[in-house]
């Protein structure tokens, strides 16, 4: 029953607020990019947080204060279908994301994602995929932040799959920081339950950003491993397998928990 309620809520919310997108486009035309992005993002955040509440999911997040000013490329591990809701609901940095091109065929969803400067990619069409990457670079250069899942597909909480370097190359070409983000527990909301939504605990850790001067001279595959290593370390900390980092890189007192 919970699963059905969530599907109905998502459809009704997006349809009800689809007109909001048109209003925002008119109101914020010609105004700073950051203002419009935050306004659009606030609507997406409400939708995402309410979805997590309906799922009975408690979300805790640490490290939002680590986001630098300006556009960034966020790189997260990919555990399940609720990753986007968790990240949209609780990351304080407005962002669009890379999505499979099939989503573009859903009218109401498409208008929201276009307003958020999401990028639709067809991995089966190399020419289109390259064009999508160029569009992502353009968005970053304009001042919009983007989120990618370097694994490409969900890992269902069973370790990390290899990180692909293609999407990460957008950061170097746009000369923006990469911010690794570690997600733990989203697969327990749906994937662990044969597609049914059940309550779960989700943790998010925003890692220290990797600035262009740190990665610009590294080969693409080493950049991917650099990002993967940082996420791996954060996941291990969540599991309690390693000691916390020194205070200068991880300040527990500055972290906070948000009830989903």
UniProtKB/TrEMBL annotation:
Pfam families the UniProt entry points to: Acyltransferase
Q: Which top-level group of life is the source organism from? A: Bacteria
Q: In which pathway does it act?
A: Lipid metabolism
A single Gene Ontology MF term assigned here is: 1-acylglycerol-3-phosphate O-acyltransferase activity
Q: Which family does it belong to?
A: Belongs to the 1-acyl-sn-glycerol-3-phosphate acyltransferase family.
UniProt catalytic activity = a 1-acyl-sn-glycero-3-phosphate + an acyl-CoA = a 1,2-diacyl-sn-glycero-3-phosphate + CoA
Q: SUPFAM superfamilies, alphabetically?
A: Glycerol-3-phosphate (1)-acyltransferase
Q: Which ranges carry the Phospholipid/glycerol acyltransferase domain?
A: 72-186
UniProt name for this protein: 1-acyl-sn-glycerol-3-phosphate acyltransferase
What InterPro entries does its record include?
A: AGP_acyltrans, Plipid/glycerol_acylTrfase
Domain text: The HXXXXD motif is essential for acyltransferase activity and may constitute the binding site for the phosphate moiety of the glycerol-3-phosphate.
Question: What keywords are assigned to this protein?
Answer: Acyltransferase, Lipid biosynthesis, Lipid metabolism, Phospholipid biosynthesis, Phospholipid metabolism, Transferase
A GO cellular component annotation in the UniProt record = membrane
The GO annotation for biological process reads: phosphatidic acid biosynthetic process
Q: Which organism is it from?
A: Pontibacillus marinus BH030004 = DSM 16465
The EC number(s) given in the record are 2.3.1.51
């Amino acid at each position: 029953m919970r699963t059905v309620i969530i599907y109905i809520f998502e459809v009704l919310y997006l349809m009800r607020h689809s007109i909001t997108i048109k209003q925002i486009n008119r109101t914020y035309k010609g105004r700073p990019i950051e203002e419009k992005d935050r306004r659009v993002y606030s609507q997406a955040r409400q939708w995402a947080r309410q979805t997590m509440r309906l799922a009975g999911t408690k979300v805790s997040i640490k490290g939002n204060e680590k986001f630098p000013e300006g556009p960034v490329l966020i790189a997260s591990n990919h555990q399940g279908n609720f990753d986007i809701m968790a990240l949209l609901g609780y990351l304080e940095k407005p962002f669009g994301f890379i999505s499979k091109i099939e989503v573009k065929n859903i009218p109401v969803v498409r208008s929201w994602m276009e307003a958020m400067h999401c990028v639709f990619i067809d991995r089966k069409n190399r020419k289109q995929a390259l064009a999508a990457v160029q569009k992502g670079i353009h968005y970053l250069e304009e001042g919009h932040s983007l989120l990618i899942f370097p694994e490409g597909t969900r890992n269902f909480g069973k370790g990390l799959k290899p990180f692909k370097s293609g999407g990460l190359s957008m950061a170097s070409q746009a000369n923006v920081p990469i911010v690794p983000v570690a997600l733990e527990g989203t697969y327990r909301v749906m994937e662990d339950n044969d597609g049914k939504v059940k309550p779960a605990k989700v943790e998010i850790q925003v890692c220290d950003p990797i600035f262009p001067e740190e990665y610009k001279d590294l080969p693409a595959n080493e950049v991917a491993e650099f990002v993967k290593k940082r996420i791996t370390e954060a996941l291990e900390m969540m599991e309690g397998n390693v000691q916390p980092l020194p205070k200068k890189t991880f300040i527990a007192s500055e972290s906070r928990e948000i009830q989903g």
